## 1
Amino acid sequence: QSVKKGKYSHYMEKEIYEQPRSIKNTLKHYLQKNNTIYFPELKKNNIFYHAEHIQIVACGTSYNAAMVSRYWFEALANTPCDVEIASEFSSRKLAVKRKSFLITLSQSGETADTLSALRHSKKLGYLGNLTICNMEGSSLVKESDFCILTHAGIEIGVASTKSFTAQLTVLLMLVSKIANFKKNYLVSKNIIQVLNTLPDKIEEILKKNELIKTIANKLSNKKNILFLGRGEQYPIAIEGALKLKEISYIHAEAYPAGELKHGPLALIDKNMTVIIVAPNNALLEKIKNNIKEICSREGIIYVFSDQDFDYEENINIIKLPYIEELIAPICYIIPLQLLAYYIALSKGKDIDQPRHLAKSVTVE
Ligand code: G6P
C-alpha cells in the first residue's frame, strides 16, 4: 500500500486519529462559503428531493451508519426512512412504498451484497437511486443514478472507522438539504452550524485516549461485553460492539437499553460488563433506570456521558465534553473505537487484518 502508517502502530489507529481531518475534508467538499450545501449530482429540484420515503441498504459498519441516519431523516427532515441489510433486501419479496428512493451506503463500493441489492432494486420501481460511497470509480458509483463521495481518504484497516464518521457527516448534510427543500430553514441552517464544530469536538474527545487505554487494559480478559444505548445512540452501541468483536474477538452484543428487561437482564451478574452510551438528552432518566437495574444485579458498568452526568452508586463514568445533540452519535463512536482498538492491542491481536474478515467482501 502506498499509504504510510507514520507514527502509528496500525492503520486502524491512524484512521481513528485522522477523523478530525477526514471530516473536515468531507465538509470542505460540500459546504460552500455562504454556508450552504452543494451536492453536484443532486442539484435543486432533483427527483431525490421529491421522495416520500427513503430506503437505505448497506452491510456492516455502513449499515450501522444508515441506522443512525434513519433517526435524522425522520426527526429532522420529516421523511420516513427504512434501513435494511443488503443481503436480506435482495432475498425477500418486498412491497415498495410509494415514491420511495433507494440509497446504498458503502465504503468500498464493491460489496457484492450491496451491489446486488442495487441491481435488484432497479426492477422494483423506486424513484431512483443514490450511492454514498468512499471510492470514486467503484462499481456502486458506476451503476447508481447519483453519487455523493464521502472523501474520508483511503481506509486500510479492515475495521472501518473514519469512513463511518464521514458517512454520518454526509448523511447529516443530506438531511439538512431535505429540510431546506421542505422550507424548514431553521433546522437546515442549524445542522450546518453544528457540523462546522464537529472536527474540533472530535479532536477534544480523542484526548481521552489515556483514560480509555486504562479501561481497555481492565477489560481485555473479558469473555462477553454488553453494549446499551437508546434512540440514535442505539446504532452507536451496535457499532461499538461490532468494532470490539471484529478486532478483539470478544463476544459483544448491543441492545436498545429499553429491551434489557425483555431478555438480556438474565445475563447480568458480577462478571458481566455493560458499556452504556448515554449523552445528556431526553432519554437520560430512562437510561439511569437501566443503570439501577444492572447495579442491583452487580453488573460492572462503564457509562460514556458528559460533564453533568452524576450517579449515586459506584459505577465507572467516562465524562466527555459537552456535545450538541445533533452530532452526538458521530462523537460518541470515537471512544468506542478507541476502546476496541486498545483492547485488541493489549490482547496482541492482528488489528489491521482480523482473522476471517476482509476489507471488501466481493462475494455474496
Ligand atoms: C466488510 C468489512 C466491514 C464493512 C462491510 C461493508 O465486512 O469488513 O468493515 O463495514 O464489509 O463494506 P462497505 O465497503 O460496503 O462499506
Note: The chain has 13 helices and ten strands.
## 2
Amino acid sequence: SGYHRVLEENRKLYNQVQDLKGSIRVYCRVRPFLSERSSYVSTVEHIEDGNITISTPSKYGKGCKSFTFNKVFGQSVTQAEVFSDMQPLIRSVLDGYNVCIFAYGQTGSGKTYTMAGPKDLTEKNQGVNYRALGDLFVLAEKRKDNFRYDVAVQMIEIYNEQVRDLLVIDGSNKRLEIHNSSQTGLNVPDASLMPVSSTSDVIDLMNLGQRNRAVGATALNDRSSRSHSCLTVHVQGKDLTSGTILRGCMHLVDLAGSERVNKSEVTGGRLKEAQHINKSLSALGDVIASLAQKNTHVPYRNSKLTQLLQDSLGGQAKTLMFVHISPEPDALAETISTLKFAERVATVELGAAQVNK
Ligand code: ADP
C-alpha cells in the first residue's frame, strides 16, 4: 500500500543518513566572552552530550531551543581538547583519503581561533591547522620503515568568487583557476605548492599566508572576514615494498563570516561581497544536503568554494565542520541561524524527523 511504501522510503532514507553520519561530523564550539563584554549573560543555557540549549527570550517570556551535534565544546574547552580525537582523521589522509575540515560561523565567533589560533600564538594555543600537520609528521615518522611520505601545502583565498594564491613572496595578485588534475591531485595547479617537513616550516608558511591575506584590507574593510581561506595539505605516500603510490589531501578551511547582511544598509562593493558569501555558503549547504540525500547530481559547480572542495566532500572523503557561536545576547539571531544551518549539515535531525512522520 501507499502507506507501506512511504514507510519503506523513510527507512531507506534513515539508513542512508546513518551511513553518512560516519563521514560528516559536526562539532559546535562556543567562544568565551571577550573580557570587555563579560558582564553579559550568555545565551547558552545548557550543554550536555552533544546537545546545546540556547535561551531565546521574547516579549512572550522565556523560551529555549535545543540542537544536537556530534560534539559540543563549551567556553572553557582548550585547543588541545578540541583537537583531541582528530587523530583518526589525520591518519586517513596518510592512508590516501581526502579530508575536509572547515570552520563556519559569524565574524568574531572564533573560526580563526579554532583553525589557526590567536594572534599571540604559543604552542599551547595553536589551532587545528598546526596540530593536524604536527600529527601528520609524527604519524609519517612512525611509518617510515614501510612508507615514504612527501607533504606539501598550498594556501589560497576565495574573495568575491576569485581565487588568489596566498603563498606568494612578491605580493603578486595573480588570479587562479580551479580545475581538477587527476594526475597530480591538485585542483588549483597554479597555486604555489610548498614542501614542508616540520612544524616550523608550517609556521613560516602560515605567517606568509596570513600577511598576504591582510593585503587589501583597510580598517573599514576587514577583508579576511569576507573571504574564505583554505590551507590544503597534499600527502603522497610510497609503499616501500610494493612501490604503490597513495595520495591523500586535507583541506583546512576558514570560511567567510556567515552573518546575513541587511540589503538596505549596504550598496556597491559591500553588497557584492555579501552576495558572493551568501552564494558560496548556501552552495556548500546545498552540496552537503544533496550528498546526504544521495542525489545523483551534486551541485558542486555553483560556487568556487564547492568546486575547490569537490573531491573532499562526499564519496570516500571525510568531512568535519566546526560551527562557532558567540555567547552574547546581541548575537542571538545569528546564533540561531548558524545552528540551524549546522543542523541541516548534520542531517541527524532530518533523518529522525522523516522517520517519525
Ligand atoms: P572569527 O575568525 O570567527 O572572525 P576570531 O577567531 O578572530 O573570530 O575570534 C574573535 C576574537 O575572539 C579573537 O580575539 C579571538 O582571539 C577570540 N577567541 C575566539 N575564540 C576563542 C577561544 N576559544 N578562547 C579564547 N579566545 C577566543
Note: Residues 31-32, 34, 105, 107-113, 118, 225, 324 surround adenosine-5'-diphosphate (CB under 6 Å).
